Amino acid sequence: MEKESKKGWGWGVLAFLTCPCHLVFIIPLLAGTALGAFLTTYKTAAFIVLGVLFALSLYRVFNKIGQDKTEGQTMDCCHPPRKEVN
């Protein structure tokens, strides 16, 4: 179980780092690097790629949260238990 929760943290960190609204903070931090020059030149492409990656990582985070909530459940809520007929 610990390994699964760590995967959820990783997706959450990735979602935080790839949020397109953080791009205005990331570009000045990467100034003078090849990655910074690339992001400055291709801002639109960077927004699109980071937006898709952000959406994917958010989906994975919420998927992990949903799995954790239903992990301990043993009953199916849609089908009531059957009565035994003797």
Automatic annotation (TrEMBL):
GO terms for cellular component: membrane. Keywords: Membrane, Transmembrane, Transmembrane helix. The chain crosses the membrane at residues 12-39, 45-62. It comes from the Bacteria. This is Mercuric ion transport protein. GO terms for molecular function: mercury ion transmembrane transporter activity. The keyword Transmembrane helix applies.
